[in-house]
What does this fold into?
Amino acid sequence: MSQTSPTPKPSDADPPALAVSLTVNGTRHDVTLDPRVTLLDALREHLHLTGTKKGCDHGQCGACTVLVDGTRILSCLTLTVMHAGQHVTTVEGLGTPDALHPLQAAFVQHDAFQCGYCTPGQLCSSLGALDELARGVPSHVTADLNDVTFSADEVRERLSGNLCRCAAYPNIIAAVTDVHAAQGAQAAP
Amino acid sequence: MRAFTYERARTPQAASHATLPAGAKFIAGGTNLLDLMKLDIERPTHLVDLGDLNLRAITGTRDGGLHVGALVTNTELASHPRVKTEYGVLSRAILAGASGQIRNKATTGGNLLQRARCPYFYDTNLPCNKREPGSGCAALTGLSRPLAVIGTSDACIAQHPSDMAVALRVLDATVNTVRPDGRERALTLDGLYRLPGDTPHLETTLEPGELITGVTLPPPVAGTHVYRKVRDRASYAFALVSVAAILNGKAARFAFGGVAPRPWRVEEAEGVSVDTAPGRRASAVIDRAFEGARPTAQNAFKLPLLRGTLTAVLESAHGGQA
It folds into this structure.
């Protein structure tokens, strides 16, 4: 090799902070942060949007699920600097106490939570999953990969990455099913 | 998490060159790497983000196959119209793995390079030759139930965790790479993955800085495509065993997951006992493909489980074709 890049020094000293712009719930934020800051920590500790929850911080529980450019991902397993210029939606961007998102209203109506800690992740994950279903993204339980249809089994499989220690699963499925039915009614001519 | 510096690469070759310094690593989806960095198992001093590279396309090849860019997400690959229709085993394998959120972020290249899920690799208080070369293997005499039964060594019995890679192996996919000097090459999956031997920390044959740019699928293989995964819970769990199969009359291909340090396929086993009943045929295939297996007392169940799983695959495909 004729060229050599400088070898980064192994060090536990703080690396240089990096400037990142991202849009969260429609508002643009310019932040300067350590490259180690996960998207989850940026939301909670830098932007003080504490709706998104830190459960396991290792991608096993789904509590930190957010939508990035409309797609659900785990905010604990991604760095903020990887998302420059992207649009993030958190639970704070779904509805307000006075004007709940239909899925939030369905969670209340169906008693789809007890302690509520997993709920922001369940909400964002459910919205992402409903969108994936509508776009024909198949799942492990889809019988025909080219014919994706809504069912309780599909919801169970698609939300398997969101744990609920209170085990409100049947009620979560009922809430998501209601919202899916309402979406279908709206879409019908 | 330890400190690292960060840059975004503009071209594959620039990315390849940027990771030449010791301690530098690529990051694509990050779903495995960041977990391991938080646990102090991966300790990169410099991350080269591949996110801006133009490696997100799935395109037809001249011979009728398919080229999949390294940054295509697992969801995109499993949902692609041609993959669903012509490479069903690949869609099925991907959808059997991880969760929706992870499949939305994890990439094709990253899936291939994910690290072992051995509990001793993850526990930094215990010896692991893969994590700390020369420290020993606590799994050999420990909780080995999920681990490999063949292709292992006295230094390591970790199994490869990917479902996707098992389907790619049965499809005879090749892995495309570029090296820091711009030279490209194509590797089979057996050419990509090393068996552990006495160097289990070296998992692939990739050279320093070598970047996976994509995966090439040969023209579709006709037949019934099946991926059957057996695990401890119905969703979001790694395989105890899995079978990727393409069945077309007497012709058959089988690759096995959850049982070896890489997707396990023995072509010579595929033609045995094709005229016998599914159970006998499955036994003959497994006996041949797993000749020399060295299971532990805790994971010896994987061989009969694999026989039963392959029998079920053969029976269902037979029923489906009747």
Q: What stands out?
A: The mean pLDDT of chain A is 93. Chain A touches chain B through 53 residues (CB under 8 Å). Chain A has two domains: 18-93, 102-187.
